[in-house]
Amino acid sequence: xxxxxxxxxxxxxxxxxxxxxxxxxxxxxxxxxxxxxxxxxxxxxxxxxxxxxxxxxxxxxxxxxxxxxxxxxxxxxxxxxxxxxxxxxxxxxxxxxxxxxxxxxxxxxxxxxxxxxxxxxxxxxxxxxxxxxxxxxxxxxxxxxxxxxxxxxxxxxxxxxxxxxxxxxxxxxxxxxxxxxxxxxxxxxxxxxxxxxxxxxxxxxxxxxxxxxxxxxxxxxxxxxxxxxxxxxxxxxxxxxxxxxxxxxxxxxxxxxxxxxxxxxxxxxxxxxxxxxxxxxxxxxxxxxxxxxxxxxxxxxxxxxxxxxxxxxxxxxxxxxxxxxxxxxxxxxxxxxxxxxxxxxxxxxxxxxxxxxxxxxxxxxxxxxxxxxxxxxxxxxxxxxxxxxxxxxxxxxxxxxxx
Length: 403
Hints:
Layout: E1 6-11, H1 17-29, E2 33-38, H2 48-55, H3 76-80, E3 83-89, H4 91-99, H5 105-112, E4 117-121, H6 125-129, H7 131-142, E5 146-147, E6 151-154, E7 160-164, H8 168-179, E8 189-194, E9 199-200, E10 206-207, H9 214-225, E11 229-234, E12 246-249, H10 253-263, E13 269-272, E14 279-281, H11 291-294, E15 302-304, H12 308-311, E16 317-324, H13 329-339, E17 345-350, E18 362-363, E19 365-369, E20 374-376, E21 380-381, H14 382-398
Parallel strand pairs: 1-2, 1-3, 3-4, 4-5, 8-11, 8-13, 11-12, 13-16, 16-17
Antiparallel strand pairs: 6-7, 9-10, 14-15, 17-19, 18-21, 19-20
């Protein structure tokens, strides 16, 4: 998503300027071309050499620097940018941008660019909450500038309040979202399920599985970064809620079915990456089952859970995952998933393989469409698998016939 994108990173005079170095480094690692523009105040907190070392590019600090590659045309940075990001942004730069001033390389770049602008404020709580700052931020939002609200926590002054620069990961995700607005899934509504459901035995115990949710979360994040409006319906996991995605937390298969039915009423695509339990206790105990009551053995009567994907019907693309073990992977995927549930696409993977099973960051899947065509993907990260899967979804959407 960020590969070969030119990000103009504005650094201003805040103690949080050192976090800008981390942001620059991570953007470069993600494949972006990072051009840094610093105010004179910013250079009091961190050296331009730091950013030059991290990005491999000359840092712009003065519009009239004769040795600068941008000295001939002050708007060169603005024209080169795919996005302009000011992080950290002080109250001063926010006021200047709101007023349309252009008296340094950074404010000039913002005024001249046609690229989207993202501002991440960082300042003392009182300055952030000041009516003037809030009025300026409201002006910027009205002009279409994206504001990433600062976090709450300990400040450089020693106090505690709102004003901390947003986390670097949140800033990067916002950049991806903004750049993905015109992606190949822009305007599409995609519902993704993730994690393993838990079926209650009593208020303490449950029947569950080893799904980590990583594959479903990767699909949701990839769809978001390609411009889709994403709803993630997730069973309990250890993963943080993805930024920029509507997240619906559920626990059981019945709850997942209800959430999926509701979410797919307006969906273009449903991707079921969740590991939904096949069985649930027929009569869960209302209180914790005691050992003295259970005796040496405990017998549970199980009944089938609803088949969420089979029962999710509508005018949308339906994609399933077939997590199987054994040699008859393709046979089971075709018969039990693709044909029986009349899906458009199935991703089959062998969960017994140590590098593509549960709770790992890689996966090896075989994509099977309803015409029976298969595409075997090599071992790759789950995010890469997600993008390959979504490539196929884009093709299916292009050929969809509305009913």
